[in-house]
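Record 1 of the preview.
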Amino acid sequence: PHHPCMFSHLTRLGEVDIYGGATDIALMPFLERGGRYDRLFWEFWDAKLPVATNTPCYGALSGTCREPTPAEVRVRNYKALILGSRGLCAYTFRCASVGTWREFSRIGREMKTLGPILLTPDDRLRVDVTPGDPDVFALLKKHKGKSYLIAANTASDKVDALFRLADVRRFGKVVPMFDSPAPSRIDVRAKTITVPMPAQGVGVYEIR
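->
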């Protein structure tokens, strides 16, 4: 009788049918290069079960015996948002440093701006990424007449990524948000933006 009901730490593959009948939201562990956790995410997605992701601050997942760097905290949460996570959560088995929690706080402040954009009902607009790198993820949204590109590079190396904004009708200016790296090239006619994505880096852009 109590809703919403959220199960914590759903980790087993192939049991979505059981979870789906018992919970309103799937809360699952998540890493930026999660392998099986990516597959689990898409199982929930295909079952139309809203997903909230739970990223570790220290210890636990995959036997990690150190706290994540601020860059790891950031890219894990932004990748989850790009994939479609409806909520962000964090947990720790040990005390994490001020720097780790400061990054979570920073992301929380950014969500006050991005929340209405992420929740727009237009679903996902088309964005093509070149090169087709499995470590680069992108989401294109539209809100109040402006478009927003959110990108994450989960690789341990820098990637020069070209984003083709197929569903943006026209634009003349790209504004980096939240200290995102500036585009190295903008081709308005081709509707492309080239961004030097740092290792485990995130970029958020307002497109006017």
